Amino acid sequence: MTHRRRWSYSLRTMFVVVTVLGCWLGYQLHWIRERAEVRSWLKSGPISPAGTFDFRNHPRPWGLRILGEKPESMLWIWVEPEESEQHYFARQDRIQRLFPEAHLVGFIPKSESGPDADE
Fold it and tell me: What is the pLDDT of residues 27-75, one digit of tens each?
């Protein structure tokens, strides 16, 4: 009776696999931390949209699903006072990269000192 050899790998291979998995996990956790920072910034804004959305139509990346990250289907982004258009679009691109499953809605909040303000 011959014994079949089971999976065999070297210690070096195990170190490489553990290193690659550690790098992947670190990248995913950094992504989740950045998403949390953007969520807190959005909550401090002029509006906080409420409602329920169908998340099945907005699947998040599998790495975020595995780690239990909450999906977002719609995010409201506003133009800051005195903000350049280039800065706004750069911020919008960054948020879209952090939340690939979300639909971004941009708006300009009504200024209290604008032409429509009561005097």
Answer: 999 999 999 999 888 887 766 555 445 555 667 788 888 888 888 878 8
Give a yes or no: residue 18 inside a domain.
yes
Picking from 47, 37, 51, 44, the residue whose alpha carbon sits closest to that of residue 98 is 37
112 in any annotated domain: no
Closest CA to 38 of 90, 95, 106: 95
C-beta of residue 73 within 8 angstroms of C-beta of residue 93:
no
Please report the sign of the dihedral spanned by the C-alpha atoms of residue 82, residue 85, residue 86, residue 89: positive
- Work out how many domains the chain is built from and give that number: 1
Phi, psi dihedral angles at 18 (to 5 degrees) = -65, -40
In a domain, 71, yes or no: yes
Query: Strand, coil or helix: what is 75?
Result: strand
Domain span at residue 84 reads 11-107
